[in-house]
Design a protein that fits this description.
The protein has about 140 residues and is mainly alpha-helical. The chain is built from 5 helices and 3 strands. A 3-stranded antiparallel sheet has the order 2-1-3, with helices on one face. Helix 2 crosses helix 3 and helix 2 crosses helix 5. The site of FE2/S2 (inorganic) cluster has 12 residues, from loops. FE2/S2 (inorganic) cluster binds next to loops.
Length: about 140
């Protein structure tokens, strides 16, 4: 069983989405022990004993990103946004002040059919600003 279905159907956390099912879209992104992972193609057995962080979780970087996402009205249809937020959380966990190039590289495996990429990039910069203001 892919981890995605264990998260959604057994645990009941439905924020993580099924998009392509073949590791191409990023809708199913989660963090496994802090590593960005596409849960649709990860066997659930791989996750035993590991920390799984989903969009239902909370971390300082995810909270700054949520605030920036809301301020910037980032989502359009919204379907991909939980995966986008998890990928952005992974980026901010690894990089304090990402450049546009860093953001493009980190977010390149998360597809948005509505084309919200410009708003996503702006919101990531805003989240960094919010974080820096809070220090
Ligand atoms: Fe997993 Fe698309 S549903 S990458």
């Amino acid at each position: 069983m892919p981890l995605l279905w264990a998260i959604r159907d057994i645990v009941g956390l439905t924020g993580t989405k099924f998009g392509c099912g073949v590791s191409q879209c990023g809708a199913c992104s989660v963090l496994i022990d802090g590593t960005l992972t596409k849960s649709c193609s990860m066997p659930v057995s791989y996750a035993f004993g590991k920390e799984i962080f989903t969009i239902e979780g909370s971390s300082p970087n995810l909270e700054f990103l949520r605030e920036a996402w809301n301020e910037g009205n980032v989502p359009q249809c919204g379907y991909c946004q939980s995966g986008q937020l998890i990928a952005a959380t992974s980026l901010l966990d690894a990089t304090e002040n990402p450049t546009d190039k860093d953001i493009d590289a980190a977010m390149s495996s998360n597809i948005c059919r509505c084309g919200t990429y410009t708003r996503i990039k702006k919101a990531i910069h805003k989240a960094v600003a919010l974080k820096n203001e809070s220090i």
